[in-house]
Amino acid sequence: MTNQQNVVVFDLKPRGVRHVLPPSSLPVAKPLSRQDIKMLLMKRFETEKAGAKINAWVDSMRASSPTRIKSTASLPPETDEKSSWIVHHPSALSMFEQIVAASKGKQIVMFLDYDGTLSPIVEDPDQAFMPREMRAALRDVARYFPTAIVTGRCRDKVYSFVKLAGLYYAGSHGMDIKGPSKSCKYKKGNQGVLFQPASEFLPMIDKVYKALVEKTKSIPGAKVENNKFCVSVHFRCVDEKSWAALAEQVRSVLNEYPKLKLTQGRLVFPLSISVFLLFPVSLG
């Protein structure tokens, strides 16, 4: 009678894919230490975690696609949850009189996005020009209220689109802010105020940009944009079948730079510096 050694087999593959081998075909393995078991379990956890993250990214990519947005006529009847959301987030157009009444005696400041707000959403981000009518309306608003444009784009790029002095421009999701000086608020050529709390990360952003360009060049339609203090990966022109591959390439770069975080935009992956600061910005 022979003694059979018990062999513990760890399933290190994603759940749903398992191979069961008869005990006789298994090699004799030495007992695993606690450290070995911990390392194996961590490896499995990281593999499954990465797969789940990619799936979540692809789901969010689908959700942000205009082809997924339903028309008003096709929307289901208003639910209690939707009604509650509307109560706390009313449309400014439908609540205009109430807003005017509530603003009496208060200083109003305008914060505006650029893409999709001041300009139409276009396939090529370099062609997102602001219509003349919108520029005229924005100029009129800025005459009465301190007005800021807050965007994930490079601040200089947005200014080249808007071309209005006297506004506050916050680029790279707030990492690059510039506004006019108080003494010459609406005069061209003034130095103004400048706030760039993450200048030390510029070399890293440049490396990330180059790495993403290299990683995504094999995916047709992918476009990488250097926004100075953050990097955007546009997938508007990428076939949906390639979204998972694109998300995997972005993740592979992101893993090398723990100081970066990824957020979800409309048909774009913005990668920005994971630095949160509280800072005063005078709009006086």
From TrEMBL:
Alphabetized SUPFAM superfamilies for the sequence: HAD-like (SSF56784)
GO molecular function: trehalose-phosphatase activity
Keywords attached to this entry: Hydrolase
One GO BP: trehalose biosynthetic process
Alphabetical list of Gene3D superfamilies matching this protein: HAD superfamily/HAD-like
Record pathway: Glycan biosynthesis; trehalose biosynthesis
Top-level lineage group: Eukaryota
UniProt enzyme class: hydrolase
The enzyme's E.C. designation: 3.1.3.12
Catalytic reactions on record: alpha,alpha-trehalose 6-phosphate + H2O = alpha,alpha-trehalose + phosphate
Keyword Hydrolase: yes
Cofactor(s) needed: a divalent metal cation
Family label: Belongs to the trehalose phosphatase family.
Protein function: Removes the phosphate from trehalose 6-phosphate to produce free trehalose. Trehalose accumulation in plant may improve abiotic stress tolerance.
Name listed for the protein in its UniProt record: Trehalose 6-phosphate phosphatase
